[in-house]
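This section describes the prediction task in plain terms. A model, or a person checking by hand, is given the sequence of a single protein chain and must write out its three-dimensional structure as a string of tokens. No templates, partner chains or ligands are provided. The sample shown here is typical of the held-out split.
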Amino acid sequence: MFRTMRREERQMTPEAAKSLLKAGKTGVLACLGDGGYPYALPLNYVYHQDKIYFHTAKEGHKVDAVLKNPKVSFALVGADKIVSAEYTTHYSSVIAFGRARIAEGEERVKASRALNERLAGDRPEAEREKSVNECESAYIIAIDIEHLTGKAHEACQ
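The expected answer:
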């Protein structure tokens, strides 16, 4: 169902792709938006227990799109460097394909803790835990990854 990479020599190992996904800061979620138009937006995330998690308001374009059609992709550029002498860019990137869903119960709590640690790890633990327990205004969305691929060119491998 998923295509093979055209430039196979640039394909990362699965471990390297996961490592880049874990280290990244901002990714781009792509889904099917209103009127059948693609909808892509940057967001904070955490890669935790082989899933991608992010938080979202309980209403809006993003949550409407993923609830209507859960098939999504998520892209991350880990590094890029223009190499003018070669008329190219050296880079590393990851693309994940999967299905988005609302995380609930213990999964939601664990994902919220992982997100809070990533986004506010410098804040006191008690404050972060209070945020996990009291946040009722947002969903935590999980992306169950069905296919993950990483690609790197030259020095960014």
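For orientation: The longest strand covers residues 138-153.
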